[in-house]
Amino acid sequence: QVQLVESGGGLVQAGGSLRLSCAASGITFSIFHLGWYRQPPGKQRELVASIPTGDSTTYTDSVKGRVTISRDNAKNTVYLEMNSLTPDDTAVYYCKATRSPSSNYWGQGTQVTVSS
Fold it and tell me: Which single residue of 16, 52, 62, 76 could bond 29 by disulfide (Cβ 3.0 to 4.6 Å)?
């Protein structure tokens, strides 16, 4: 059974930092492309950052310079380090593991709330 479990969300003041974690089980973690998505209140889910099986990473423009995605294949975990948070970063954050269009998995999400 595949499971992706996010943790590390919470309430933080503007300017603060959070580190999200997503622990995976039931998959060969190292061969999956990983991504962090977020869904702000009343809005559609959007990609925040992604990291393929190699070292390259991509970020949506609104988080560049403030957010770092990383993966630890030995721990089957992907991380999202977020700094200089603003209220616009308030959302439910989800991790996704993708191998192919028919082989992809989502976590249950973790709430991040940034107060002004």
Answer: 76
